[in-house]
Amino acid sequence: MEVKINDISDIQKEVEITATPAELLPHFEEAYKREQAKIEIKGFRKGKAPLDMVKKIYGESIEYGALDHIASDLFREAADAHHIHPVGEPALVDMHFHRGEPLTFKVRYEVMPSITLAEYKGIPAEKAVHVVTDEEVNGELLRLRKSNSTFAEAVAAPDDEHVVTADVQQLDTTGAPIIGRKTEGARIYLADETVYPEIKKALSGVAVGESRRATIEVEREGSKEINALDLHVTKIEKVVLPELTDEFVKTVTKEKVTSADAFVTQLRTDLESYWKDRSERALMDAIVGEVVRRHTVSVPEGLIKGYLDSMLEDMKNRYPNKKLPPQFDDAEFRKQNRPYAEFQAKWYIIRERLIEAEKLTVEESDMERLAEADAPKVGLDKEALMNFYRTSDAMKDRILSEKLNEFLKKHAVITEKITEEPIE
Predict the structure, then answer these.
(1) Quick check: helix, strand or coil at residue 69?
(2) What does the alpha-carbon distance between residue 131 and residue 275 come to, in Å, rounded to a whole number?
(3) pTM
(4) 51 to each of 33, 63, 64, 69, 335, how far by Cα in Å?
(5) Would you give the DSSP letter of residue 156?
(6) What is the pLDDT of residues 13-44, one digit of tens each?
(7) Residue 151 CB contacts under 8 Å (≥ 6 apart), including other chains
(8) Alpha carbons 79 and 101: distance in angstroms, whole number
(9) Measured on CA atoms in the order 169, 171, 176, 180, is the torsion positive or negative?
């Protein structure tokens, strides 16, 4: 078999393969046998006609019909022999064959580009360090208490810590009710930030049995619409927040924490840990973004498609039975997410080259450290987890990513910025 590889670009190649009649013969013989089982010739039961007769009657059509399959087999053989590693799906772009003569065909495929690394040490980056305030801790405590609140019936709503139940009737421009536009028993928590301010204002100080009117602006299908509403209050409940006591803490933590003071301390520690993680991720994103910006990389389309396919699969997993809704626009999804997929593909190419350049490897001690940290979380014995990690490419990739991240941070020029603002 003759194999000739041509460069089309730094990420695209074309291989031209020529196979002699003698090299094609075993492939044709397999095709004859496959088709023999399906063919029915008068005088013989289906699949029992002699092979010579099958060749004589159907040989030419069988050979031509098998060419795509044969080309695929021959390409795999050539790929193994010549260390061809396509990215994505190779494409058959040309084929020439006359019975009894050699088969010649061309396959076009993408490869990972060879890149020259730009400077990746000394990357300037700002690290936001979030200071957890008493106000933030108190806000979290309030949210926790609200999520465990109870309700007591009331006759009026003097403040926002009330839930108002109302029948909501939409009105026309004259103030008359619109038939079919009434919602009964709508529950409105006045402290909910998602409640329209106009409705919240209209219901301020309302009493059971009262009716109030509000006008709100809503957006439907890209256009704004003014809705006039009549809200007839049928019930009011006061939101009763539990006190932050030792007993309350024991209940919400299932006895893991037994005192209110210890809980507040733990909550602050958890918040600090949360913001530290956010800070580290934001810092790493900034460094990676700058590294990618400094490199000009041709990205194989197959690699971008792979990332988009993976994102689409993640999207499917969010729906029942992993089935996207009928109105889901696959093409639009790919269009909107292409810039992100392209960035990730660029980073993957650069990342592999950086790991190679810095000779980063996975050691037994790395897997042991990871297994020791993960074993309590997954409820497995450390050694059992080690056995899995030794054979897991995903775990090895995770370790290499962690090592590369630490390397880039260690060699970056990092400036810390103290802030009470959230870290994006």
Answers:
(1) helix
(2) 8
(3) 0.79
(4) 7, 14, 17, 20, 52
(5) B
(6) 999 999 999 999 999 999 998 888 888 888 88
(7) 163, 237, 238, 239, 240
(8) 23
(9) negative
